[in-house]
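User: Could you write out the 3D structure of this protein bound to NAP? I've included everything you need below.
Assistant: Certainly. Input first, then the structure.
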Amino acid sequence: MTDHQDPSLRAIDQVVAKAVEAADVWGESMPVVRANLLRGLADVLEQHQQDLVAIADRESGLGAVRLNGEVARTAYQLRGFAEEVEAGVPYRRVEDEAVTGAPPAGRPRLARVQRPLGPVAMFSASNFPFAFSVLGGDTASALAAGCPVVVKVHSGHPELSRAVFELASSVIRAQGLPEGVLTLVGNTSRAGGIYLVQHPGIAAVAFTGSYQGGKALWQAANERPRPVPFFGELGSINPLVVLPAALEKDSESLARTLAGSITLGCGQFCTSPGVIVLLESSASRRFVAQLVEDIAPIGTHRMLTPGMQKGFEAAVATVAEYATPVFDKAADGAGPAPRLLAADAASFIANPHLREEMFGPAALVVTADSLSQVIEVLDVIGGTLTTTLWGVDEPSEANRKLVRAAERVSGRVLFGGVPTGVAVCHAQQHGGPWPSSTVPQSTSVGYAALERFLRPVALQDAPAWVLG
Ligand code: NAP
C-alpha cells in the first residue's frame, strides 16, 4: 500500500499485488480451467496425505483418524466445487428481453450476470487444519467463484499451511495459471491481520474463529474508506432441546450419543452442543444422570493450542461462577476434563455470563419449567449455528412455536442426531444470526458458499460481444 519499514506488511503488499494481478484472468477463466485447478488441488492433497497428516497431527494433536477424515472431506469439497463450476453455477445469468412501449411494462433488454468480487482474504480456522485452512471450504468456494485467495495462515498450524501451500503452488504453476490465484500471508502480527483486511486490493474476507478475533477483523473491514463484505463465523453455543416425547422413546441411547458429541474432538467444534435444555421432570433428571455416566469414562486429547485450553478453562470458570457443577472430574490425560454444569432457565435468561461459549468439552444443562420458557431460552441465545430439537414429531401448536423459535435463531435446525458433523451438500446452511455469522444470509459450508463471492451486475442493452 505504502512504503513500510515493517517487512511483514511489505510482504502482505507483495502477495496482495499478485492476487490483484491474477484477478481478471482468474475471474474470466473458463469452467474447464477452474474445475481442473480444483481437481488438481484435491489430487495433490491426497497424493501427499500421509506426510501432511503427520505434520498436522504434530501441530494440532487431533489424531490421524480425524485428520485423514478431514483430508477426505477437503478433497471431496474441492471436487464438489469443480462440479458446480462445470454445471455453470458461477456463470449463471438471468435475461429479460426488451419490451416496446412506455414503462413500467416497456423496458430495455437486460441480462443480470454474476461477477467475482475479487481477491478474498481468508483467515484459516484453528480447529480444521485442512477443511477450513489453505485449501478448505472458503478457499474452494472463492476459487470456484473466480476469486483469487490470499490465505492468512493460522498460528496453530504454520508448518502444515506452508506445506499445503507449496503443493498447491506447484499445481498452479503446472497448469500455467498466474501465481496470484493463491497466495499466503505467513505468521503475522495481529496488526498484520488488520492490515490485510483493510488492504485496498482485498475485496472480501472469509473468517472462522473466535468472537473477539472475528469482531475485531469485522470492524476493521467496516472501517475501511470503502467497506468490503466480511463473511465471518464467530461462535455458537448450539442449544439442544430434549423434550419428554424423546425421553420416552430412547433416553439411554440419546444420552450416549450426546455425551459423544459434547466431547468429540475435545469439544473443539463450532457446532458442539453447549446448552442442553430440558423440562423439569424426573425423566429429565434421569437423562442427566445417564449423561454423566456416559461422559465419565470418555478421555480427551490435548487441545489445539495451550491458548485454546486456557480460553476453555477461563470460559468454564465464568459459567461456573453462576452455575452448579454436575460433573467435574480431574483431568486424566493431556487434555482438559470434560465438564457439565447446570442452571435454571430463569437464571440463564437473566444472566449473559451463563451464555458464554465454552469452546471445549463442556455443556450447560438448563432446566425450564414450561415450553414457553424453552422458547425464551432460545430467543435470548439469539444467534447460533444450530438448534437441535429432540421430541417434536407431533404437529402440535406448541411444537410449531418451538420450531419457529429455533428457525428464528439458527441456520440449521436438527430434528434428530447431533449438530457436530456438517454435511457438504447443496442444502447445507452453516451460518445464522449474529454472532454465529456476520452475514446470516450466507453459508460457509456446502455449495451455496460460492455465492458469497459473486456480485450481480445488470447489463442493459449490452452488445453481443459483452454477453459472450
Ligand atoms: P481466533 O483467535 O479468532 O483466530 C482466528 C484468526 O484470526 C487467526 O488467524 C488469528 O491470528 C486472527 N486474529 C484473532 N484475533 C485477531 C485480532 N484481534 N486482530 C487480528 N487478527 C486476529 O480463533 P481461534 O484461534 O480459532 O480460537 C481462539 C479462541 O477462540 C479459542 O480459545 C476458542 O475458545 C475461541 N473459539 C474458537 C472457535 C473456532 O471455531 N475456531 C469458535 C469459538 C471460540 P493468529 O493466528 O495470529 O492468532
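The first strand starts at residue 94 and ends at 96.
User: Perfect, thank you.
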